[in-house]
Design goal:
alpha+beta; six-stranded antiparallel sheet; globular; 260 residues; binds flavin mononucleotide
Length: 260
Amino acid sequence: MRARVTTRKVLFIALLVSLLSSAMVTISTILLRPVQEANRQHYMHLNILKVAGLLQKGVALEAQLQQLETYLVDLNSGEFREVENPETYDLRKASKDPEKSILLSPTQDIAGIKRRAIYAPVYLTRDDNNRVNSIILPIHGYGLWSTLYGFIALQDDTATVIGVRFYEHAETPGLGGEVDSVRWLKQWNGKKIFDSRWQPKIQLVKGGVDHDDPGAIYQVDALSGATLTNRGIENLLKFWLGDDGFGPFLARVRSSGDRL
Ligand SMILES: Cc1cc2nc3c(=O)[nH]c(=O)nc-3n(C[C@H](O)[C@H](O)[C@H](O)COP(=O)(O)O)c2cc1C
């Protein structure tokens, strides 16, 4: 005998299927969250080691991370303290939380980020004599289409660049997206990012740097066909190295000398 198909039955089954599917999606999202978070942290750690030129192939990441000391910096005062579980602090979340960030005025906000977290993590590494030999700072700011998130690594003089890299952005591949190009990134090593009065100074030069120019030490080649991405990178570096970014922290690093 054939069962009667009624509209009510069809609707009931459709409802049941959609409820089951949404429950499955919700459950898998919840179950996958720790895995996604672990992957995100793994990727961040890789980038921190890479920007400082420290990533070693064939050595377990966990072992390599031992060399990083993480500090949490009060960006207003530049004071910093070591943190034991840095992974519990989410800079991106804090930057959006009105209780954990400050609103930037239009004149302050040259990086186009609207709010700036009160605390930010920084990473230090030391040489065999226990002297700091790299300072790694998180940076972000608006390009043309997207916010670029990355790191800058500095030598202990706080002025000489070890490396710059962006691990997330949505600029156009081949144009602004060339921020990922190894050749472009290589130019940053050895550049100076502060002038003699400790004002941030870095220029992305359209048409390429003239290496005979005495100012070349503050300059890297601009990305071709990407004026707005270039401007965004210049501005975000000026912001994060300036008084509203890591400026007060870097001044403390300079004044603490060997005691750091
Ligand atoms: C499809 C498309 C993608 C673009 N992507 C970028 C980009 O990622 N970054 C950027 O600064 N300009 C990009 N531009 C170009 C800008 O719109 C603008 O023309 C450019 O900044 C001018 O740069 P130039 O003076 O260096 O040639 C793009 C343009 C088009 C049509």
